[in-house]
Design brief:
Blueprint: H1 8-17, E1 19-22, H2 28-44, E2 56-58, E3 66-71, H3 73-76, H4 78-84, H5 87-97, E4 101-111, E5 119-122, E6 135-141, E7 152-154, E8 166-167, E9 171-172, E10 184-186, E11 193-197, E12 202-204, E13 213-221, E14 238-240
Antiparallel strand pairs: 1-11, 2-3, 3-4, 4-13, 4-14, 5-12, 6-11, 6-13, 7-10, 7-12, 8-9
Length: about 250
Amino acid sequence: MTLKALTAAQAEQFSRDGYCIVPGFLSPEDITYIKAYYQRAAAAESASASAADGTAWDQDGSAAPVLRRVPAPFDNDAGFREIFGSPRVLDHVEDLMGPRIYLHSSKLIFKPARSGRRKPMHQDLAYWTDLSARQLTLWCAIDPATPERGGIELLPGSHKQLLPHEDLDDYQVRENTLDLSTVEAAVMEPGDALFLDVLTVHASARNRSDHDRLASVVNYYSEPKNATQVSRYGSTRPLRDAPLPQNS
């Protein structure tokens, strides 16, 4: 297959390990826009917002509440759609899952300094097991993402099958069943992109630093939303669609 955007080494790593990192994926202007969008979202919300719509607030003692998750920026903001629905971004997505591309879901994740809980080891697909067609997660660092700052931890080569998940500290894989000696930290600068197979086992650390960490997450799917699926995610409008085969 001819690659449109990824290097051969990046595509090979994704196939082997279940992920690859593309440095400098977002422009400085993209980063500035996404940070400003988060600030607008936080200002528009209130501390009484419920989690029913996917919005979540962290409250630490007497401190002011902190918006840690902004749901559906792709659906709600034209500027965000322009970034993550652009031909350049979709070329990278197509290299990994083919030319049929639909939005699955999107969110911003914020981990404030000296806060933000650890997200245990899990696979993204475990949250929507009825959506089993080709899909991937695009995780972009808006702030530096390091182990101290709540970055992503990855288990290379763990994308071969869906593992059992349980409600423990979170909906997660039992970590004592995993070989964690091979875990790798995805150390990322602002604008770097992590392309992640939805079966790759990963976690994110608590933010132990004195600096905030903001990340953008967009999941792409290869089929349109349908009336029989259980998951609420998906879209019927293609971001990019393969031409129908011609009858011979």
